[in-house]
Amino acid sequence: MRERARRLLGERLDVETAVVLAPLILRVGRRDRGAVGLELLDGVLRRAPRERLLPLHTHTDRTVRRFALRLALEEGILSPGELARRAAWDDDAVVQGLCADAALATLTDGGDWDEVLEPLLGARNARARSAGVTALRRAGRPERAVGFLIDRSAVVRACARYVVRQHGTDPLPWYRKRCADPADPAVPPGAVIGLAECGERADAELLWPLLTHPAPAVRARAVAGLRILDVTDVARLLPLLDDPAPGVVRETTTVLLSFAGTLPDGLLMTRLGAERSRSVRVAAFRLLDARGGLIGLRAAVALLNDPDDKLRTWAGQSVQRWHPGADTPHGNPEVGELLDRARHLFSDYVLARHGWRGQQAQ
Q: Cα(10)–Cα(6) distance, rounded to whole angstroms?
């Protein structure tokens, strides 16, 4: 039966059916004895006219796109410019990397660099942009890398710093100059985080004033930069938990998680109220949940009726995995009261198994 199926596939598989059946053949090819189908598909597509393969290069299945790309690379049917444009628009990181590397590998000193560099440098994905920025050194255009020192991607910023350093320029003074005036509304967020990535702890003095910058992205990068520099002042960061920008609140929470056990629980509990923004409630709960014990249980139970589905579910899961800490001696009446409010989350067996049923009775 298997041999007959192989024979029929070999007889019926032409270019048109190969393009249509490629997703199925590639999926079956992962199984035992699926190699025959892959070999037939490969043979048919290698003989196909280039224009007939275009649907495979834009297929929604990334496995199909990868297969078609590797075939095209082996056959050499895509120009450097086409490869660069493919690296720029495809959303698959594997395809991005293969195309960018192949496009740059084909170029020589006398090649058309613009045809390759412009699509890569203008790509939305960081993989292609970083490849383009790194290639600026080889192309003899390192000065263009300066503009990418403030890129939104950490990888691209790192590549840009490498290129400008190789050109004899230290990026640190460049970053410091752009972060020197906290009143400047045009401070680039990428310069703020870039300063932290290659700066010293003393550079935190340039970041602290940026916590009140009017641009949310600048404030968020300033908080992230302080974390990178390992400079933390809890008292100065706590007010940012009420920042109107969710990104700032998230960054602040990430920094404060290491200090969750020392934060004032009353201040955080008041921020669980439904009148607060979702970002503030999430931040407060993350910090209280990280603290654990009785305080963590209080916070979780307080959110069991929260209007936000995800936060309510998260709180319920926190209650279900809760265990007493050093601050919750056996028989604590508050624990029994809190668990009673969350009783719908447990079976009688679980309550009895953990000894919580007795606490409720007390």
A: 6
Tell me which residue of 135, 46, 27 sits closest to 87, measured CA to CA.
135
Element (H, E) at 196: helix 189-198
Distance of alpha carbon 201 from alpha carbon 138, whole angstroms: 33
The string of DSSP letters for 279-338 reads HHHHHHHHHHHHH-HHHHHHHHHHTTT-S-HHHHHHHHHHHHT----TT--TT-HHHHHH
pTM: predicted TM-score of the whole model, two decimal places = 0.83
Contacts 24+ apart (CB under 8 A), 62-67: 62/92, 62/94, 62/95, 63/23, 63/26, 63/27, 64/22, 64/23, 64/26, 65/90, 65/92, 65/95, 66/92, 66/94, 66/95, 66/98, 67/22, 67/26
pLDDT of residue 13: 59
Q: Which of these, 103, 37, 44, 104, lies nearest to 68 by C-alpha position?
A: 44
Cβ neighbours of 87 (radius 10 Å): 28
Report which DSSP code applies to 86.
H
Average pLDDT value over all residues in the chain: 86
Name the 3-class secondary structure at 331. Answer: coil
Percent with pLDDT over 70 in the chain: 81
